[in-house]
Amino acid sequence: MTRIRPSIQPSDGPPVIAIDGPSASGKSSTAAAVARVIGAIHLDSGALYRGLTAVALGLADRSPRAIIRAAEQRGLELRQVAGELVPFLDGRDAEPRIRNPDVTDLVSEVSAQAPLRDWVNARLRKAVQGTRPVVMDGRDIGTAVFPDARVKVYLTASPETRARRRLIQRGVAPDHVRLAAAAARLAERDRLDSCRTVAPLRQAQDAVLLDTTGMGFEEQVGEIAGLIRRRLPEVRFPDNI
Ligand code: CDP
To answer: Ligand 1 pocket: which of 20, 23, 44, 146 to mutate (most atoms <8 Å of CB)?
Structure first.
């Protein structure tokens, strides 16, 4: 584990907890559980990139300008539903649509485009308001979107573990052939996300590295919640962390 000085975030907003890491490292489910434990809002930045990709799939012209125009016409946004921020498209919960393999296959290509990243980032920054801490997960939250986040975690796991978790999450039996195919797809997405010019996937210098290979879900949630409590001693959290 790398532990360097905590970065200080400007005092005019709620504390941001950035959780970044490669594909299928468990960021979103961990971030959601951590947010529940500490009474924070969870924001999955990947959902907006996936939403833009779902929009792009319906277009012949996939230029950033055309994608943004169509996304705004179709009302792509994160809405608060029962305390959770849920991606909406065409007035409906877009969660099932954005997890489809056609979206997953194209999302790295779409999200490499700078104007689309600016569009997403403006929405992420606007969502951080009020007093409740925000747990945000993605690829570049601690490096580019909130470089002054008070707590940064870089979550990873071995390629095999990640491939296995992704198959189980999709309800598919993780046999050898499927594991190899899933691992190859994740590796390709990580390659594209790490090699792009704008805000590539990398561990922030001041992020705590958490390798969850062989770790249970509760354990990793507990580790991060404990870290947050130590880093943010002035914040009053529920008694259960
Ligand atoms: O859940 P999973 O690990 O499959 O990925 P995700 O968080 O839903 O993100 C999907 C894709 O969006 C990533 O592969 C990246 O290409 C892109 N993304 C990004 O570029 N920057 C972010 N902050 C979040 C996601």
So the answer is: 23
